[in-house]
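REQUEST FORM: STRUCTURE PREDICTION
Request ID: SP-0412
Submitted by: Lab K.M.
Chain count: 1
Length (residues): 577
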Amino acid sequence: MGIKIKTIRESLKKISDEANSYGLARASPVNANPEIIPVNSYGLARETHSFLDHSEVKGVNKLGFHWNSGREGTINDEDVLEGLQPHPCLQSLKIENFQGEKFPSWILTHNNSSGGLFLWDHLLEIFLKNCNKCEQIPTLGHLSHLKVLEIERMNNVTCIGTEFYGNYSGEGSSNSRGDNGRNAMFPALKKLVLKHMPKLVEWKDAMEPTTTTRGTVFPSLKELVIEFCDQLISAPCHFPALERLTIKRIKSTAFKNISSNLTTLLFLSIYVVSELSCLPEQLFQNNASLMRIFIHYCADLESILPHEDVRAFCISLRDIYISECEKLSYIPDTLHALQSLESFAVFHCPNLRSFPSIQGVASLRRLTISCGVEVLPIGLQSCTSLLELDIWSCPNLISIPDLGELHSLSRLEIVNCPKLTRLPGGLSECLKTLGIGGFCEELDAFPSLSSIQHLHASLEELGLFGWAKLNSLPDEIQHFTALTYLHIWSFDGIKALPEWLGNLSSLQKLLLNHNKNLMEMPTVQAMRRLTKLKELIINGSPKVDVRYANEKGTEWSEFAHIPYIRIESDVIKDETF
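STATUS: Completed
RESULT:
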């Protein structure tokens, strides 16, 4: 940078020491670039300004102004920040915990008194955080090189108006013109983040609807994140280059505004969008390259599309994830057209009673089903590339067909399906991970594992989930000598683990969770045969905790060879380092 870092750091230390005398702040470096953290003191602000104006500091390109939060007494933040105008070559600016009602003139004004630019020629990123008393976001649209803008916890802002963009005269920048001679607002901005703005109701477009002259707005914006703006009901609709859109806790009308004219979207994530019954049809029709859709906790969502139309679904989609949408009852039966689909998950959507056909979706690698279906989707056995199949919390599922055609399947989980009474057959020897259980509670014993006995030399990870009646583990487990991981959960009737557990000679990790009557571990002889066991973790098994309470901290003979032992939150032994 052509500056003397040592001199800068000495100056920073002087400012920091004075700040500490007020008990308000400190100074610290950020990477190779010092970051100034000023304080609530006008005298200190003058000295800091003198330092910032020093010729040797002109190369400092990253600057942050931070106030302590939770301050009391007289607040003179506006005077302090007004006196801390940085040099015009600044590249990064952060203002945090500022309690003034308006930002300083050197942010709000495009030009200085001599006709020169303040920050505009070099500024690449701006972060405004916890500026709770400000009612207006400063005009920033004319910043010709600004790439990142993040605004968080500006609690008093109710509207982002046209002043946010500036005007189309190009004032403050010689490089703010877009294509075809039109002026551009935020010409270089790549990422825009708005978070935790509880009073924000309206975000206006750059021009009012009645204005006839329009320029280019956000021509380079690739990523837009809006989170925890619960009252936001309107937003702009002009994002010509947007590729990533993340929406969390806003009104559906604002989301529909934003998505109405998108044509370049690749990734869409939606969380807790109220009053959203289905996704806008044009979102699929206009974004031919859309690859991923994630939808979470949209309580009013009833369908992905307003009607069934093969053309409406983007054939480019690779990942679809829908979770915790209680009213979801319909997914168009057009998945067979998605020839690029690799991952499809529907998780905790209890009102979805019919799953769309996946016949011929040869590209599918991962499938998660957790909903109200009685039968698995048509065409499951045609998905010969499927690697992972998870079937969780399906209270109406009656049976699972043989899975003999899924030759590539390496992980299978079938858990908490209370109407199931047996396991599927035909599992491939490629299967390495298996989680099963939580079946019909009228069964007095765990379903037979005879259909998976051929996996005894290949299965590496096994999770068993029981229920209240069960008082024993399936004996067949003792033959799975390749197991490295065993998880036993909710076998409430078991009081002691069987001796044959010692036959699992490859076992490295043993987890025992919520087996409320379990008291006894296998004998010393059985445990010592587990020569490769590295971790023993026991949770939610209070009788085990009581049984070994007096021995905690001692060298238990049966566990002496295990490097890591934890019972509940107590780490009994840790020799893993």
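NOTES: The chain is about 10% helix and 20% strand.
Reviewed by: T.R.
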